Each structure stands twice: as structure tokens, then as C-alpha cells.
Amino acid sequence: MKLKGILNSDIAKGLADLGHTDLIAIGDCGLPIDPEKKIDLSLKLGEPKFIDVLEVLLEDFSVEYYYLAEEIKENNPDQEKNIEKLLEGVECEYISHEDFKEKLADVKFVIRTGETTPYSNIILQSKNIF
Q1: What does pTM read for this prediction?
Q2: 97 is known as an active-site residue
């Protein structure tokens, strides 16, 4: 058994398979996700929280760039601030929610949370660790 890091085997394997510039996503419980790419962590409405999943993921994953839906600024500014705090110093690109959903076609996998606040979704680009 693992002693440290992410215990979910699908996430751990997915992270281990990533290369530089590969994309992954974390989504709220309403984000439309290709069933072939979905790693579902949702337990009930609100659990686990998006920000908790992001925080744990960042302990095991290096990010060089990320995407958020433009709509988060107006509809969920507290979540936007939480994300910015965790990803301080990492460049962000804001795109429309429709473009965000289209960009999900490029991700290797999407982690579905139980989050119920609007636009709690992120696409993360893998950083070269050396």
C-alpha cells in the first residue's frame, strides 16, 4: 500500500502517465464529462469539495498553466480567489464556459467532484519537473 500521496488508483496512474503540457481537469458535479475520461469522486452534493480535491492534487502534480471559465469572475469570485491562492505565480487563461467545455476534449482525464457552486472547474497543464 502507498504511504503518501494520492490513494485513488485511477488518479495516481493518470498522473504518472502525464507528460509535459498534457492537460487534466477537475470539475463540479454538473460539468458534462466524457464517460471514458471521468474519474468520479462525487459522494453527495457538495462532497468532496472542488478546492479540497485541487489542494490534494497539487501536492502530487506540478502545474505550469491553467484555464478557468470567464464566468467564474462574476458568479463565483470566492472560488476564484481560492484557486488563485493555491496556484499563486501560475499563469491563468480565462475562456468562455462554452470554450472550456470544448477544451475538455483535449484533457487526458477529468476528476468529478461533488461541488455545487457555479463554475468550479479547472483545466491544468502539466509542467516539466526537470
Answers
A1: 0.97
A2: no
